Amino acid sequence: MNTPPKIRRVSHDNKQKNPPSKSKRLPQSSSPSPRSPNPNLDHSDFIPVETVQQSRDRTRSRVIRFLFVVLIATYAQQWTSSHDGNDASYLKAHSFADPLWSPTSESKGVQLYKYVDAAYDNKSKSKSKSKSKSEFMPVRGTMYTDLHISYIMNLLFDVSRSKEWVKDLTLVEEHEVRNNLDGVLLQRYSTPTLGLIADREFLVKRKVKKNNFLKTVIITYESFEDKKRFPVCKGCVRANSKKTVWSFRSLPNGGTAIDLQAFVEPNGSLPPLLVNFIQKTWPSVTLSKLVSVSAKSNSKKKHHQFLQW
User: Fold this and answer.
1) Potential cystine with 173: which of 102, 186, 215, 238 (Cβ 3.0-4.6 Å)?
2) Is residue 280 a contact partner of residue 112, using CB atoms and an 8 Å limit?
3) How far lies 217's CA from each of 78, 209, 262, in Å?
């Protein structure tokens, strides 16, 4: 026999005692209130607007730097590919061009030059009949070789072997050598006059400037005075090297372009014939021997600072 379901009756007293709560609406303000973060949510994926803007600026700067590097690399590649280093006319027009020097003759693979400054020419002509007392004696020679620059630098900075290739050099001392190859040199040269003219001595500071991007090195020798530490030898004359510059550049084909310019003040009268003889023979013999001695098998060693050139 089925029993009817029980019906629960709610008294009206309970409804009146516990009425349902009605939510009170707050007055809306004109400005929106900031949202309070929910502690139950993971905010690691949320990126603030400031961080996005900084990321865009950083990306933009990286793109600009990249394009600049590509532009420089493209220009360098076009420059090296258009000149393979074997064209002597290119070397003469670009590497050795100087309006103050005029090419004269070639000897032992070295191009010789004449200094064409008007003031110097006038002084030389006015004193050509007597002993030359010009303020300086200009000397210049240029050449290029297939030998890599590292072999040449190894011999050039080995002062103990300088007399093997520097013409008329009888004595050389090296002092205060630094890691960048700067230093002080004391050099003595003999004059080919059978003792009639005193030997010349030079006290110079050597400064080396390297450019790894252009693969060039410029070595400058300039005289200075220090008779206390380096007194003048007996029977010698302390000459003055106003500015002697050796310029080397590694060529794309693995060779080397060499440019030697020297402005020497002999500090004493020299016959014009001797001056002309030095200007014609000293650069050709010195440069050609520098290359030939560097290329010998017993001295063919590379300088560690120029291996990557």
Assistant:
1) 186
2) yes
3) 22, 6, 16
Identify residue 253 by its one-letter amino acid code.
N
Classify residue 91 as exposed, middle or buried by CB count within 10 Å of its CB (0-12, 13-18, 19+): buried
User: DSSP letters of 124-183?
Assistant: HHHTSSS-B--S-EEEEEEEEESS-HHHHHHHHT-GGGGGGTSTTEEEEEEES--TTS-E
Using only C-alpha atoms, the chain has a radius of gyration, in whole angstroms, of: 41
The residue with tokens 């590509």 is 70
Q: Which DSSP letter does residue 308 get? A: T
Residue 85 has a pLDDT of 43
Question: For 106-110, 236-240, 295-299, which range has the lowest pLDDT when averaged over its residues?
Answer: 295-299
Pairing of strands 236-238, 199-211: parallel
Residue 110 confidence (pLDDT) above 90: yes
Interior angle at CA 282, CA 280 and CA 285, nearest 5: 105
Place of tokens 């013999």: 285
**Could you give the CA distance from residue 96 to residue 109 in angstroms, rounded to a whole number?**
15
Report DSSP letters for 180-201, one per residue. TS-EEEEEEE--TTTTSS-EEE
